[in-house]
Amino acid sequence: MPILVWIHLKEAIGWYRRLFNFSDFKFGKYILSNIRQRFVLRRFILHSERNVRFIFVSRWIKDTMEKDVRVKVPSYQIIPNVVDTQLFRFEKKSPELRKKILLIKPFVNKKYAVDLAVEAIVLLSKKAFFKDLQFTICGDGPIFDQTVAPLRRFSNVFCMKKLSHQEIRQLHHRHGVLLAPTRQDSQGVSMCEAMASGLVAVTSDNSAIPEFVSDRNTGLLTHSAQDIAEAIDNLYQHPPTYLNGWPSRHRILLTRHAARTG
What we know:
This protein is α/β, with parallel strands linked by helices. Helices cover 32% and strands 16% of the residues. The chain contains 8 helices and 10 strands. The chain has helices at residues 27-46, 59-69, 114-124, 144-148, 165-174, 189-197, 225-237, 239-244; strands at 3-7, 52-56, 76-78, 100-104, 134-138, 157-160, 177-180, 200-204, 219-222, 260-261. Helix 3 (114-124) links the parallel strand 4 (100-104) and strand 5. Helix 3 (114-124) crosses helix 7 (225-237). The longest helix is centred in the first third of the chain and has 20 residues, at 27-46. The protein starts with a strand and ends with a strand. Mean pLDDT is 90; it is low at 250-262.
């Protein structure tokens, strides 16, 4: 019987890839545990039997793990996390929904780049059309209040905490654009759920994200808060592009990425 080992992210990469969290007072402890974890993982892979097969949710994780652990996995498959397309059903969006922008993120640390989303909204507030937009910010965590503080003065920004999957589905129905920046992601499951529902993802061009979002084909890839603001501006200014472009291509089946065997 084969033994399957599922590799997701934190257990497989070097601490130096998370220097964006260096200000965290626990980062020193994380460095030590990470060094030990990679040593144990390397020994496990080197001594694995032939019936051991490694599963990665993206090719980026596989390639990054092999670099950071300094060992090649002998047998693997790439199988992304599944999206429940019965719950997150595709809906073609009206052009008006390009003005309704949703963000769903944990507010835990800088990995999730919620600060970039906030900065982008502040940049957009200087645009003449800003009041025609509506932002819904959803999430929870120790940095939630301090992160969204600069947005409290805007009447068209709504903040919510602790959502169920059914509530997320309802938010997908009422919005047309997903704001999904990240500094590092193994896949971006909530992003894929929103794309399956028909939202345009405005996300980041790093880590595993380009495996799931093709720039200007199934979403928009960005590198900064300025890029994010410009992407939202572009979607607002060009409703035909929004209506006839990306949302109609979002009937994605993540199984297309799956079962690539090494």
